[in-house]
């Protein structure tokens, strides 16, 4: 393992090496499971990053996949040991199962170690910027699908994420690209939106986050909610892609899709309103929430 590798980076290195080797060998996950005498779900969970493979399981798997170079094998064994060495708050049993999806668990581990986070938010503010009441209003919108105890657990998780990002030293570079429509979407009602907008303004003033607004006058970008996270210790230009839609979410490992999302984010960021104008619009929106009829335009420089 490289000296700069952190547990999340180490875990990712191992699972991507396994996945790449399996694809190069031309095997399906089912074939690997049969050859190793494992369940298919075990192979799937290892490759998705839901679980960390043990060193005792990794050795024979690498041999089967044709990875025999001593240095590479030792590097991956060291990496899997590092990936298993620390338990964090998101590993707590109370967050198992439906309370925390496998993709969200990975996202949080990456947030704990990322050097930068870039988010695109077309309908609501990014989860790591949401106030408690704003987040609750969003989650309670899914009350017909998720139980009350799940909502409470996820509220606790979002609070821990906000605390973690604020408490990191050094903090990651945080960039949020938000659609202008969010400034007027009364999630939870007028007071909740006003509080959320004020919190965003305070975060900007504090230097916690850089925000740019994608104006309503421009075409909607061809992608939904996503986060791109650059990890400390990884090569420049590499990123983790997290995508979500409603209650569904995923970590995407496809290099082409990651590059496409980064190019789209960069292009939309450059075309968005600059930080000063964006901050002004957020402040004006906070002051004017409830004063604008539905469908009215919100303009301030």
Could you please describe the fold and organization of this structure?
This protein has a six-stranded mixed beta sheet with strand order 3-2-1-4-5-6, sandwiched between helices. The protein is 49% helix and 12% strand. Helix 2 crosses helix 3, helix 7 (132-140) packs antiparallel against helix 8 (148-167) and helix 9 packs antiparallel against helix 11. It starts with 6 loop residues before the first helix and ends in a 13-residue tail after the last helix. Residues 293-301 have low confidence and may be disordered. The longest helix is centred in the middle third of the chain and has 20 residues, at 148-167. By secondary structure, the protein is an alpha/beta fold. It contains eleven helices and six strands. It is elongated, with a radius of gyration of 21 Å.
Instruction: Look at the helices and sheets and give the structural class.
Output: alpha/beta
Element-by-element helix/strand order: HHHHHHEHHEHEEEEHH
Radius of gyration: 21 Å
Q: Give the spatial strand order of the biggest sheet.
A: 3-2-1-4-5-6
How many angstroms does the end-to-end distance come to? Answer: 50 Å
* Main sheet record: 6 strands, mixed
Number of E strands: 6
Strand content: 5-15%
Shape descriptor reads elongated
Low-confidence stretches: 293-301
Work out the helix count.
Answer: 11
Give the % helix: 40-55%
Mean pLDDT: 86
């Amino acid at each position: 393992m490289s000296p700069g590798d952190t547990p999340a980076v180490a875990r990712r290195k191992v699972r991507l090496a396994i996945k790449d080797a399996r694809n190069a060998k031309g095997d399906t996950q089912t074939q690997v499971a049969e050859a190793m005498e494992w369940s298919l779900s075990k192979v799937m969970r290892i490759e998705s990053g839901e679980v960390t493979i043990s060193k005792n399981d990794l050795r024979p798997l690498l041999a089967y996949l044709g990875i025999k170079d001593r240095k590479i094998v030792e590097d991956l064994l060291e990496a899997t040991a590092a990936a298993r060495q620390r338990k964090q708050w998101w590993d707590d049993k109370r967050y198992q199962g439906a309370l925390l999806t496998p993709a969200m668990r990975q996202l949080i581990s990456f947030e704990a170690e990322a050097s930068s986070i870039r988010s695109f938010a077309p309908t609501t503010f990014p989860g790591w910027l949401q106030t408690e009441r704003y987040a609750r209003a969003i989650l309670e919108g899914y009350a017909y699908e998720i139980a009350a105890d799940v909502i409470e657990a996820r509220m606790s998780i979002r609070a821990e994420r906000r605390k973690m990002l604020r408490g990191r030293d050094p903090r990651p570079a945080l960039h949020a690209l938000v659609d202008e429509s969010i400034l007027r979407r009364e999630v939870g009602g007028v007071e909740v939106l006003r509080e959320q907008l004020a919190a965003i303004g305070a975060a900007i003033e504090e230097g916690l986050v850089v925000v740019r607004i994608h104006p309503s006058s421009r075409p909607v970008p061809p992608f939904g909610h996503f986060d791109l996270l650059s990890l400390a210790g990884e090569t420049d230009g590499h990123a983790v892609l997290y995508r979500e839609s409603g209650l569904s979410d995923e970590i995407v490992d496809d290099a082409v899709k990651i590059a496409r999302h980064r190019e789209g984010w960069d292009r939309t960021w450059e075309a968005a309103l600059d930080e000063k104008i964006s901050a002004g619009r957020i402040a004006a929106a906070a002051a004017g929430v409830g004063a604008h009829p539905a469908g009215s335009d919100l303009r301030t420089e």
